[in-house]
Amino acid sequence: MGYYFNNIQGKKGSQFSSQLRGVNLEKVLIVSIDAAKYFQKALICNYFGDVLEKPFFFGLDQLGIDLICSKIERSQKEIEAERIFVGIEATGHYYEDIVRELGKRGYKVTIINAATTYEERFSALNWSKTDDLDLYAIAHELIQNKGMENRLPEGHYRKLMTLTRARRSEVRKRALLRVHIRTLMDHIWRDFQGYIEVENNKPKKKLIFSDFWGQSSLFFLEFYPHPSDVLELGIEKLTSIIKEKKLRIRTSTIQTLYQVAQTSIVKEKEEVSVELLLLSMAIQDIKRLSENIKTLEKEIETALLQTDGRLLLTVPGIGVITAAEFYSELGDISNYENAGQLIKKAGTNPIIIQSGGTSGFYGKISKQGNKNLRFMVYTVGKCLAQHNKDLLPYYLKLKERGKHARKAYIALGNKFIRIAFSMLTHKKPFDSKQNGYSIFEEIKKKLNFTKINTYLNIALAA
């Protein structure tokens, strides 16, 4: 323990040095692995870089895992290794199965950031990139203790992470599809998205439907996307259909829609038949994506309420989805001793620039961490700046000092990491100083699929 606070790499360095201290370095085994979708490659050497097993391929199946383990065991016997360090580059999600399977065989695998491997090759003045060069770089990183961590998300962390990332993917697909639909409507009926009225020689944009993606608008996009469809029905028939479908559309909106259909300049329906076909397909796709998102959000809410992450719902400005993403990307905080380690994990820690005895200054953030957590730190900071009156003064103070809004969001997100670390460690809700704040009401307005009484029963049971 005497070396713990003195190591130049802090906790990570102390753990690494404790494993090496007193060990003959000739008896330290280094195993570097380069993961890919189909072709995994590994190299085995000693601490001084002497190759024991030249780069070899192995499959990601039982035979492949047996092969790499047998080679490790053979090399271990050859040099009578007392310590074994295994490292793998975090390439997409392909590395996860290898980490998991080797973990079952008793090997603790260090996960290495792909950016670190790039910098290692760059520092060697080698701009080539091959599997073998990557293996050599990974081996050097292990020797220099440049790995990130050796834990994969498990349990409810992994479940929430999988659900929230899947939802984010579906939301992005829907956003792209919405752009596509608007482009198609530019060709079919541009004024459906909004028309212009000139008042006192000033143009003003007006909308037929306040929410272009609402139920009413989507109904017309699906069944009556061309103005000729609306004109053919007439106002009385339109009113009858709307009542039959139980759509909440005002009479004034129906009249506006009909009037815009009369005055719009559009191509004949036959001329845009291809666009109409593509629009019909896109509408079906967007309905499917919206249904997928709703299903995922229900699962996310249910899963979040089973964890300590539900405490984050007591924070004004933090909704269910944001809380779930933030909580899952943070991971198990019991693995960390202070919030600063989580900030570094996110890569939102500012780089300190100091030389020659000067006081120095803080530069841009390091970006050497989990990009998904880094995105959530920014997102949380933005949400809090807009909706949390307790933390708004901190944001405004940063703005007064000349901070750009994006930098201020990240700084506020870092501050919230410290707050969340304390909340989750002590299992305490957010302590708001605002008049009228109620934990009960704050949580109630955020739950979409769960009754507040169910939430309280879960909280009390925990």
From TrEMBL:
Keyword match Coiled coil: yes
Residues of the Transposase IS116/IS110/IS902 C-terminal domain: 310-395
Any coiled-coil regions, as ranges: 279-306
Any Pfam family: DEDD_Tnp_IS110
Annotated ranges, domain Transposase IS110-like N-terminal: 32-188
Record keywords: Coiled coil
PANTHER family for the chain: TRANSPOSASE, TRANSPOSASE FOR INSERTION SEQUENCE ELEMENT IS1111A
Cross-referenced NCBIfam families: transpos_IS110
Protein name: IS110 family transposase
Lineage: Bacteria, Bacillati, Bacillota, Bacilli, Bacillales
